[in-house]
Amino acid sequence: MSIDQKVSITQTTRSKLATTDLINPVFGKVYADHMLCCDFKKGTWQDMKIIPYGNISISPANTTLHYASTIFEGLKAYRNIHKEIVVFRPQDNAKRMVLSADRMCMPGIPESIFMTGITELLRLDEGWVTNHPGTSLYIRPFQIAMDPYVGIRPSDDYTFMIITGPVGAYYSQPLKVKIETKYTRAVLGGTGFAKTGGNYAAALKPAKKAQKEGYDQLIWTDGESHQYIEESGTMNIMFIINDTLITAPIGDTILNGITRDSILTIAKDQGMKVEERPVTVAEIIQSIEQGRLQEAFGVGTAATVAPIKTIGYNGIDYELTDVKSRKYSLGFLDTLDKMKSGVIEDKFGWIYKAK
Ligand SMILES: *Cc1c(COP(=O)(O)O)cnc(C)c1O
Questions:
Q1: How close is the Cα of 212 to the center of ligand 1, in Å?
Q2: How far apart are CA 53 and CA 70, in angstroms?
Q3: In this predicted structure, which of 72-86, 112-126, 316-330 has the lowest mean pLDDT?
Q4: How high is the mean pLDDT of the chain?
Q5: CA dist 206 to 179, 200, 211, Å?
Q6: Alpha-carbon distance 298 to 304, whole Å?
Q7: What pairing do the DSSP bridges indicate for beta strands 70-72 and 316-319?
């Protein structure tokens, strides 16, 4: 990829790097020194700049504040064993962001701006990318409508930004999850496949309720019958039954996760049987009762692979197999980790070297 976009850079005079704990960072609380901004005005993307991380100023009438005209992405940069800074499949995040934008009636960010933005930001804040085990620099691109207009219509102006922050492991423990049978995350014809703010705001109440009941996370089911399994929290979900990897197919209501796609690709490459098909709650509960469910796990950038140890359904908690003996999910995690750290060959061309 060529870097054909001009970026103006203003460096911070007060770096926080020396005073930040990069070995045990807290997810989502600490941000690196710089951020990228690019505006969409008069029908074109312009004024791409990197400036010190800090607050931004917007009108109280800003349409995003009122009507949630916002989309985002999430990806990670790692320091590999050759001391290079690598990012996992960033071009796929750029493409997905354009799909989210289209659903929300926003202009799509050109891949060249997305990639140049990430690359330049990582080169400037390279000290924030360390090789401490389990850590990475989380990259959060997002795009918001900017019109100061309290009326419902697509905005004329937008801002695209990228912020980054050091992170460690997302979940430290195997998960206890509850199959949600009342609330709905996404419906056919809705916005479930887009990474847009409203999906997450609407999920807070059911997630909070599950947490009060002692669960870490929800398993979302379809909005119509609540009989089909869709996702787990903000991760895609996978099961192993009869040594076969099973996951729900991508569609309107399921986010097309890059981790999901990567694991499916690795599994097929290793000759494993893979089924992308509707998965019913009944099938999963029955397979647990009959001792046939070998593994269940969430997959996403934040956690990579999050083993599930307990599934709650209709007031009953079903305990799954011992997490330590899970050869498939731990194997996928290991393969992905080794690709990112440069220990094994990047045979699918997923690793982007930023520096
Ligand atoms: C981001 C996200 C995922 C995971 O996608 P990745 O590309 O693997 O990070 C899954 N489900 C939802 C709802 C998400 O927002």
A1: 24
A2: 20
A3: 316-330
A4: 95
A5: 11, 11, 9
A6: 8
A7: unpaired
Domains and CATH numbers, the chain: 8-167 (3.30.470.10), 175-341 (3.20.10.10)
CA 203 – CA 260 distance, rounded (Å): 21
Residue reference for tokens 């796990």: 297
Atom nearest to 192 CA in ligand 1: 13
Q: Quick one: 181 exposed, middle or buried, by C-beta within 10 A (0-12, 13-18, 19+)?
A: middle
Please compute the mean of the pLDDT values over residues 181-188 and round it to a whole number: 96
Give every CB contact of residue 108 below 8 A, 6+ residues apart in sequence: 97, 98, 101, 102
Reading the block at residue 14, the tokens are 């007060």
Side-chain half-sphere exposure of 12, counting CA atoms within 13 A: 15
Query: Using 50, 70 and 90 to split pLDDT, how confident is the model at 288?
Result: very high
Over the stretch 99-153, which tens digit does the pLDDT of each residue have? 999 999 999 999 999 999 999 999 999 999 998 888 999 999 999 999 999 999 9
Whether the predicted pLDDT of 280 surpasses 70: yes
Task: Output the residue whose Cα is nearest ligand 1's atom 12.
Answer: 234
Whether the predicted pLDDT of 2 surpasses 60: no
Q: How many A from CA of 91 to the centre of ligand 1?
A: 15
In this prediction, residue 285 has a pLDDT band, given cuts at 50, 70 and 90, of very high
How much of the chain, in percent, has pLDDT values that exceed 70? 98
Dist. CA 149 → ligand 1 center (Å): 31
pLDDT number for residue 26:
82
Cα(177)–Cα(166) distance, integer angstroms: 27
**Residue from 255, 256, 262, 340 to probe ligand 1 pocket by mutation (most atoms less than 8 Å from CB):** 255
Rounded distance between C-alpha atoms, residue 77 and residue 58, angstroms: 29
What does DSSP assign to residue 254?
B
Residue 33 sits at the vertex; the CA angle it makes with 30 and 37, to the nearest 5 degrees, is 105
CB 33 within 8 A of CB 17: yes
Helix/strand/coil percent split, the chain, to 5: 25, 30, 40
